Amino acid sequence: xxxxxxxxxxxxxxxxxxxYASDPFRFISTLEDAxxxxxxxxxxxxxxxxxxxxxxxxxxxxxxxxxFRKPDFQGDALGDLLGDGLLLSEGDTWEKQRQLANPAFSxxxxxxxxxxxxxxxxxxxxxxxDGDVVNAERVMTRTTLxxxxxxxxxxxxxxQRVETIEEQLxxxxxxxxxxxxxxxxxxxxxxxDDAEFDAAVETLDSILDDIxxxxxxxxxxxxxxxxxxxxxxxxxxxxxxxSPEQLRDEMMTMLLAGHDTTALTLTYxxxxxxxxxxxxxxxxxxxxxxxxDDRPGMEHVRELDYLEWVIQEAMRLYPPVYTIFRExxxxxxxxxxxxxxxxxxxxxxxxxxxxxxFYDDPETFDPERWKPERAQERPRFAYFxxxxxxxxxxxxxxxxxxxxxxxxxxxxxxxxxxLGETPLExxxxxTAHPRQEMSMxxxxx
Length: 445
Known about the structure:
Layout: H1 17-22, H2 24-35, E1 38-43, E2 46-51, H3 54-63, E3 68-69, H4 77-82, H5 91-101, H6 107-111, H7 114-125, E4 133-135, H8 136-153, H9 159-175, H10 180-184, H11 194-215, H12 229-238, H13 244-275, H14 277-290, H15 298-301, H16 305-317, E5 324-328, E6 332-334, E7 337-339, E8 344-347, H17 349-353, H18 372-375, H19 396-411, E9 414-418, E10 426-428, E11 432-434, E12 439-444
Parallel strand pairs: 2-8
Antiparallel strand pairs: 1-2, 3-5, 4-12, 5-8, 6-7, 9-12, 10-11
Helix pairs in contact: 7-8, 7-19, 8-13, 9-11, 13-16, 13-19
């Protein structure tokens, strides 16, 4: 058995980091095409193994999840931003926080919130008129921010405050774009964009402080209080089982991770519908048949099968989280190769979702590939936009519910025509954003 998986030979000092940083999406696809299940490369000083084998991914995320952990981000900017929130915490801390969060994300609670999600979508559409040009990514970002602030924090912010939050997203995102100098430099070395990043974090911290101060007066006590996540955490803090620092970390994680991936899923869904009018027509036909002139609600979501396939296919082609990382806590063997404790594992949704090993014509937008009889032919972890196993995204049900209701509410009234250039260029950060402005013309149906 070979001791090291195959992979590209990198440069001295930088390894493959400069190639990766120039275009992570192409780098991932190239490695998947060339090496298949497993590939080894250096990300500067960081030795990395990329796994594209669904069976190995299932082991890492599900069946042997206790042998793997998230890499320690606490010493870098991601740790500064999200701290010990659900996304980064481990062990007992994660288990306690997940248990606290579960009631706020239960399907029973979310089903009762469907009307409020629809209401937020309607509010954002209220100023639209036939022929208007809108930035779809911006509208979707503001809509999903409205939803997460309402459903998970129990607040409604002024348009000015929502705009202030939105303005901080760019410097935060830029800080996490791949940079070979950061890969090679020691963590203590200052970099040019550090000041803007720190200022953005400080601004968001101030907004969260204000939100928490408002909710402290209405969080209630015991199990009879509101079940939004912030109220649950405030009560846990008051009972001495949650620190103020942990509460802050959870709210920052919820604010950022809770809206971004859904906003991107919606943005790419509108783009793909615009590029494929025959699919758009079927979406409109299904919405007209299932909902008619009614207001979209939970009773309709269960019947919007084709729309669900469309959203799933958008997340396949444009997974907002395009790769996730783990590291083994002991020496393991994966896809026939030994992997030492502490080595970085890359599990790339981008490469696996677009692999012709698992999908016919993988670059083609084909919602019908999500018909049950076709989907069951593929390995389970040939598709994992929400991760998997005990660390799967706690918000996946909310994200799908939001996406279906927001698309249905919008598509009842309008079509969106993409006005930008194709193919899309993507900007890699913690999530995959379109590099160009997503300008779309509103066409009244």
